[in-house]
Amino acid sequence: MAKLQKSIDKRNALIKSTIELVNNNGFHATPMSKIAKMANVSPATIYLYFENKQDLVNQTYLEVKSNYTAFVFETYDKDTSVKTGFELIWRRIADFNRTECEYSFFLHQCNNTQIIDEPSRKEGIRHLQPLLDLWKRGKQGGVIKPISDYILYACSINPLSFLMMAQKQDQFQLTEEQVEDAFLTAWDSITL
Amino acid sequence: MAKLQKSIDKRNALIKSTIELVNNNGFHATPMSKIAKMANVSPATIYLYFENKQDLVNQTYLEVKSNYTAFVFETYDKDTSVKTGFELIWRRIADFNRTECEYSFFLHQCNNTQIIDEPSRKEGIRHLQPLLDLWKRGKQGGVIKPISDYILYACSINPLSFLMMAQKQDQFQLTEEQVEDAFLTAWDSITL
Amino acid sequence: MAKLQKSIDKRNALIKSTIELVNNNGFHATPMSKIAKMANVSPATIYLYFENKQDLVNQTYLEVKSNYTAFVFETYDKDTSVKTGFELIWRRIADFNRTECEYSFFLHQCNNTQIIDEPSRKEGIRHLQPLLDLWKRGKQGGVIKPISDYILYACSINPLSFLMMAQKQDQFQLTEEQVEDAFLTAWDSITL
Amino acid sequence: MAKLQKSIDKRNALIKSTIELVNNNGFHATPMSKIAKMANVSPATIYLYFENKQDLVNQTYLEVKSNYTAFVFETYDKDTSVKTGFELIWRRIADFNRTECEYSFFLHQCNNTQIIDEPSRKEGIRHLQPLLDLWKRGKQGGVIKPISDYILYACSINPLSFLMMAQKQDQFQLTEEQVEDAFLTAWDSITL
DNA sequence: CATGAATGAGGATTCATTCAT
DNA sequence: TATGAATGAATCCTCATTCAT
Q1: Which UniProt keywords apply (chains A, B, C, D) (predicted)?
Q2: Domain check: are D182 and D116 in the same one?
Q3: pLDDT at position D1, please?
Q4: In the structure, what pLDDT confidence band is assigned to residue B83 with cuts at 50, 70 and 90?
Q5: Are C97 and C41 found together in one domain?
Q6: Is residue D85 located within the same domain as residue D71?
Q7: Based on the domain organization, do D42 and D59 belong to the same domain?
Q8: What are the pLDDT digits (tens) for A9-60?
């Protein structure tokens, strides 16, 4: 078990290093050797845990995305009202973007570039299934606009990614107050 | 003139090739040699027109962005009502995203990665100054929500980028009807 | 130890190849790839031992120079008479120029071109400190002319470099007899 | 004639630029394009005057060397005494090294590297024929040591090159007084 | 005679990946 | 399992030289 433990530690260290370095330099400007060095590991060791560089990033992506989804729905209860449920999810996503910005920036990079294999990325917004279910309920209840989930997402959730990016680029400060503004705007946009 | 013409042709061909290849493979996975080949030019010739790879992409970015801005405001008349003006601009942006998707995808890539030099990217949304002016008027007139331009942008304009991306990844079809839905959603989100 | 040994072997092979190729073609006409090939090593391997081409040549220079100095003073005893001491050193330098002409030619190239970094070259003739000390003693004893060490060096030691060069270019044969002539001339030139 | 004049001007400008740039950067670090630019000429124009880069440097070398020889013997009268004649020549060479250091440094570079074609360089010290003749007379008259001209040259003339180099590298200042010291040393070295 | 644009060949350097230990 | 050394295949960029004008 000690051995297995050690292995998981190394794998985690590699994934952490990958996120940090890819965030700062981009995928192609991040050499395996640097990832190895930051994880205190030999370059060759990476290949014990991952097939190749692409696999390393793919797995990192999937892991971060799964963390994201878990975080977003951690406190969600599907039996609440549509409005309460949406607000809960939306605020969790906002929290994630603000407090876990390493992760959210990494996801954003992957979602908006050719870094990740098509298969991994093609899943679209299906990982937010509980939110989609909620929207379905909202549409049936006449609360949410009867339009494509992609548009709902684009107008209510995706703006948080943009604001996180703008903050990262020092163009904008995402204060508490701004989050309130953003929430109301999001809610207005998707409701009838 | 024939000579100068030829030069401009080559420069244009290089920029076109850059856009296409960077769109498909990303900046670092696009060798200068491929750009040259696609432009029917020797690799060395690129350096007659651009200082280096970074300069090539920077200039390409600035050129595309300038095309984008020109297109967006081409039909704009600043003396219309806020609603009319916004709709006009919004629809031009939507058109650009749909018909010039090579360009808009390239811009999106650049805006969301480390490809471009800080200075070029840091300009933020200032290139949309007429829109910002319109929003200012709208805020004064009690039509537009009195919130940060970045939030207004994130909720009303940026969604178009996301939808373009989703379409590019075959997750979504941006039909005429969807555009109507998206516009109403955008308008609802930013108005009081 | 086997591993370390191997490393040192490779480094030595690289330095040896560098000397030979730079001697025959000059610094800039010597590609790293040829150095690698001659050392039976991949081009990339060079960069495990040296930072870059400049560093490779700098280190080679320093190493050769240090060999030179060691050789020159190997048999020197600072308690001899000025004449005996000078003759000993002079003959060692002559020997080095004749038997290690690969080395001495390389040094000569470096000393007379812009190949080497200023810092490495600027040391001047200080590496011959024991000889300078001897001259000091000789000046105090009224044996050696009370003139600049640089002139003493130029007239008594540097001629050997010139003769080595002339021999290398097949203009001249540095026979035993010529060495005797050269020594007497050198001695005459620096003594009162 | 106007045309011919112009041509000679360009050729001279090219040779001048070559000297300056090769002095500062070395042969291989001096691109033809820079030579052309410094001479206010198109790169292609160089090839109207010289066959290729090697030819340009060879011709530059021969021209500078010929200037050198002319300068050295300009004031020489072969009917003086050996001592007077030698002193005259030696001082002209010293002057050249001090006042025309661009030229003398260039010559030194060429003489001590692989820059120049063998044929051009192989001439050795034959260009100093009047000096060799003088030495011959001196040997017959029992004034000059009966040893190889190369050794005489190495000990009496070549030191000036070394001192010029040392000065160029800021290790040494070649003052009037030092020149006197150097002359006496040179004379002592070659006389019986 | 003069040129600026164009280029093919080549060179320094990097990096994902492998392999002997 | 873990590694450091090693490398071949790229990649960016430069430059001597040519050619259409």
Answers
A1: DNA-binding
A2: yes
A3: 41
A4: very high
A5: no
A6: yes
A7: no
A8: 999 999 999 999 999 998 889 999 999 999 999 999 999 999 999 999 999 9
pLDDT band at C152 (very low <50, low <70, confident <90, very high): very high
Beta carbons of A15 and A63 less than 8 angstroms apart: yes
- What pTM value is reported for the model? 0.91
CATH number of B159's domain: 1.10.357.10
Residues of D in contact with C172 (CB under 8 A): 124, 148, 150
Residue of chain B with shortest Cα separation from A165: B112
Tens digits of per-residue pLDDT, D136-179? 999 999 999 999 999 999 999 999 999 999 998 888 899 999 99
Answer whether D154 sits within 8 Å of C28, measured CB to CB. no
Please report residues of B whose CB lies closer than 8 A to that of A188: 188-189
**CA dist B51 to B23, D34, D88, Å?**
21, 17, 55
Distance, CA of D185 to CA of C53 (rounded, Å): 41
- C130 and C168 assigned to the same domain: yes
Contact A163, A185 (CB under 8 A): no
C-alpha to C-alpha distance for C148 and D181, rounded to whole angstroms = 8
- On whether both B169 and B133 belong to a single domain, the answer is yes
* Integer CA distances (angstroms), D94 to B169, D79, D106, D138, D167, in order: 78, 22, 15, 21, 13
d(CA C111, CA D177): 26
Residues 6+ apart with CB under 8 A from C151: D159, D163, D178, D181, D182, D185
* Residue of A111, A182, A190 with shortest CB distance to B151: A182
Structurally, chain D folds into a number of domains equal to 2
Please give, rounded to a whole number of angstroms, the shortest distance from the CA of D136 to a CA of chain C: 17
Q: Are C164 and C98 in contact (CB under 8 A)?
A: yes
Task: Give the helix/strand (H/E) hosting A104.
Answer: helix A101-111
Residue B113 predicted with pLDDT over 90: no
Report the half-sphere exposure of D37 (CA within 13 A, side-chain side): 6
Tell me the backbone φ, ψ of residue C125, rounded to 5 degrees: -105, 20
Domain range holding C116?
Answer: 53-190
- C109-120 per-position pLDDT tens digit: 999 888 887 777
Strand partners, C144: C191
Residue C46 structure tokens: 């060079």
A90 backbone φψ class: left, alpha, beta (φ>0; ψ -120 to 50): alpha
Residue D146 is classified by DSSP as S
CA dihedral sign of residues B89, B94, B99, B101: positive
Q: Which residues of D touch C122 (CB under 8 A)?
A: 169-171
Answer whether D59's CB lies under 8 Å from D120's CB.
no
Q: How far apart are CA C33 and CA D80, in angstroms?
A: 58
Contact A/C (≥3 CB pairs under 8 Å): no
DSSP at D123: T
Q: From residues 99-128 of C, list those within 7 angstroms of strand E by Cβ.
A: none
CATH assignment of the domain containing C20:
1.10.10.60
Distance CA D152, CA A4 (A): 80
**pLDDT tens digit string along A54-112?**
999 999 999 999 999 999 999 999 899 999 999 999 999 999 999 999 999 999 999 99
Are C162 and C174 members of one domain? yes
Cα–Cα distance for residue pair A102/A60, rounded to 1 Å:
13
**A174 in the same domain as A103:** yes
Integer CA distances (angstroms), C173 to A115, B3, D149, in order: 67, 61, 12
- How many Cβ pairs closer than 8 A exist between chain A and B? 138
